[in-house]
Amino acid sequence: MKKYLRLGLEILLALLLVAALGLAYWSFSGKKHVVHDLAELNEQLSEANESLEKAMEEAEAAKEKLHEMDALIKRQREFDAIKTAFANGVVLQDIETLYKAQKSLTTERQLGLAGLRLLTKGAEDPETVEAFQKSLEMTDWNSRLATICASQNALAAAGKKVTVLADCNAAKTESAAKGGGHGKKEGGHDGVHWGYQGDEGPEHWGDNFPVCAKGKKQSPLNIVGPFEKSKDALSVAYQDGPLKILNNGHTIQVNVEPGSSLMINKDSYELLQFHFHRPSEEQIDGKNAAMVVHFVHKNKAGKLAVIGVLLNEGKENAAIKTLWDNLPPKEGVEHLPKVKFNPSSLLPSSLTHYAYEGSLTTPPCTEGVNFYILKTAVDVSKIQVTKFPFKMNARPVQNLNGRKISAN
Hints:
408 residues
């Protein structure tokens, strides 16, 4: 009896153990399924969060574009209002009538006239294109870089084939070193490069600067008689100032502080800068001097006047020694040594001269520049000539084209 009772209890305990194991397994399986579901849910939440962040970024970008569009619409409305105001052409006609009464226009007025014509007549108007081309031809290369950019960009917008300078493409419209066209080399692969030899030499300047090839009053000249009598009297009042010397890639140039002036009869011109060429660009009876220094001046109307001083090999020149002892260590960076310099130290005692109307001797070869080449040369030693960083930076002499050279 006890034997059967014990066996029954063992069987019962076995059944209870099996039941407990089954319950435990069921519970474990359920938890595993829940963990799996939670993992899937977490992954879905992560994906949803990423999608939300991306949507927010796209919304922010769309918002910025909407602001930009609003700004463009506002500018377009302003432009349309300005264009409508000038569309009747009355203001353009009045300005043209006023300007025709003047003997000559400044570059700024010519560019303003072109801009007004663009607003009134549009970019397809041939006279608009001609007005911008004229402003470009009148432009002094460095002190008018902003004008060059405005004219070139307007011509490009009108569909004309024009090489826009790299400085304009980069919106670098600040003026470079002041003066007569001897600026820093244009940088960038799409800039207009020019030089004195090879494919960038003077015979190729006209490819990008039409006036250099087509102009009828180009500089320099071979100065040879007979001469007319010069009506111009020169007097200079140059002052001491801090030496500001620059190697701009084409020449050594010294920029001058305001205060130094040239009087041509009763007209005052401010000295902007002076620079050097080797050999001299001008010839006297077919012969070049070892070098020449050009003093570039401008009056209030924007007219340029250049005094040229020929440098012949001879004794050492004390003024040039000061300059050469302080040559810039880097190209394109204005050097400011703690040195005072008076430009008059490079002038001869006499200002008797040959005179003619010419142009800048470097691109863009702008015409309307009065040249005064002094008859009295100044000495420079052979060593000083060879120390000049440029072996040759002189444009060949140009055709006289019926011009008269005067002398006093």
